[in-house]
Amino acid sequence: MTVPELFFVSEKPVAELTGADNVLFLGNALGTDTHLWDLALPTLAAKYSVIRFDMPGHGQSPVPTDSYTLEEIADALVAKADELGVESFDYAGVSVSGAIALEIAYKYPTRIKHSVVVCSAPYMGGPEGWAERIAQVSAAGTASLVPAIPARWFSDEFIAKDPAAVKKTLDMVVATDDSSYIKTCEALGNYDARPFMANITVPVLVISGEIDPGSPPAAGAIISETVPGARQVVIPGASHIAVVEAPLEVAKTLVTFLDS
């Protein structure tokens, strides 16, 4: 099985991570990079040894030559933990990386202490659900997606209040390699956590944006109602990229759960 090469950035010197028991990996949404967590980072880094990563061909991660699955990203994270000498760790991911939260919790229950699904769902519609998006990026690149993204990712109020934050997020999408974006869409099309969710034994938290059209609270509730002992928190007024729109609320919710 191929383990995709990923870019990782640690908030602490790598030498301090060996044997650390407070490591928190953070993953990002489709078409974004490690900076997606910038506004939530101070709260999280004050308590945890935070390691952020870019999906393949996103941000500073190398462009993959082969297709990959979200399970293989989970494998890559555990391989990185092995490299760093980290026995167990917490994990939180947004959207596509939120889906990885379920993959890693299921496959590596002895390595994951807590796993957090942020604005994601247990199933993303299958390959047919991504065909149109793939065709658009193939024809016109990731920049062609930008006009439609704000309405899917942010509330109208936030778009008006903080256009700079919206632009910063959209710029990440434009910078994402087209072929890598497509491969990630394909991985999402092949993703389905529904068959194994009931067998997850790791503590799981679902954070949903109240008005998220892509991964609505109802989708998150499927996770919290199926994974034994899982919980759900809905962020009022937030949409799909709640970690940018309501970073303190997301960070405080994470801290409360991880400390439980």
UniProtKB/TrEMBL annotation:
<dbReference type="InterPro" id="IPR029058">
    <property type="entry name" value="AB_hydrolase_fold"/>
</dbReference>
<feature type="domain" description="AB hydrolase-1">
    <location>
        <begin position="28"/>
        <end position="247"/>
    </location>
</feature>
<dbReference type="GO" id="GO:0047570">
    <property type="term" value="F:3-oxoadipate enol-lactonase activity"/>
</dbReference>
<dbReference type="Pfam" id="PF00561">
    <property type="entry name" value="Abhydrolase_1"/>
</dbReference>
<dbReference type="InterPro" id="IPR050266">
    <property type="entry name" value="AB_hydrolase_sf"/>
</dbReference>
<dbReference type="GO" id="GO:0016020">
    <property type="term" value="C:membrane"/>
</dbReference>
<protein>
    <submittedName>
        <fullName>3-oxoadipate enol-lactonase 2</fullName>
        <ecNumber>3.1.1.24</ecNumber>
    </submittedName>
</protein>
<dbReference type="InterPro" id="IPR000073">
    <property type="entry name" value="AB_hydrolase_1"/>
</dbReference>
<keyword id="KW-0378">Hydrolase</keyword>
